[in-house]
Amino acid sequence: MGEIKRVELVNLVIFAFSQYLDYWLSEIVPKLEKLFGKIDYISKELPFSVYTSYYDREMGSDLRGKLLSFENLIHPSLLADVKLLTNQLEESYAVEGKRKFNLDPGYVHHSNFVLASTKSWGNRVYLRNGIYAEVTLLYLSGEFRHWEFTYPNYRNEEYKKELAQVRELYLRKRRNLLKGENFDENRFENTGLSKERGRLRCPGGDLKE
User: Fold this and answer.
1) Do 185 and 202 touch, CB atoms closer than 8 A?
2) CA–CA gap between residue 68 and residue 166 (Å, rounded)
3) Residue 62: CB partners within 8 Å, gap ≥ 6?
4) Quick one: which of 125, 147, 159, 177 has the most CB atoms within 10 Å?
């Protein structure tokens, strides 16, 4: 029988894309930081529309995005809550049912990059409240590697390099956490995450019943 261990905390990442990216980031970054804490890394602008036209009718053409990394490490089970909150933020700015920006949350662990999704598929695992998790990239032999099912943009080396930067940040934070440094167990107070998951109170700990 395998030994049950505490789950490692992970680095929250949100990929934001829009036709008017800089404008919408100026609007939503303060709201994202209020929900999830300080952003500690913003990637360079990354092309998005070149990989898919799926969003063009709703959001327009020439969509571009940036990856946002958050300073506070989170328990991986919080990913479903993050997705629900980012969906609410998208909807709050929508006009006649059409969104002005898209927010795709996920997390970086030292071994992979995981995305949240509302869509069921054979490569996704159900979390809760209609949210699934997909291991989009695997970190192996010093680099992020994609699968056959990985979204085209995340197969691109630009995206992988930016996620590798986030991974380096995460590893530094993880080392500090393992040393017991700078861990604030109340870091979710007055945020969207505290409402549903305030029972996550110890480094790497799971829900306390």
Assistant:
1) yes
2) 9
3) 19, 49
4) 159
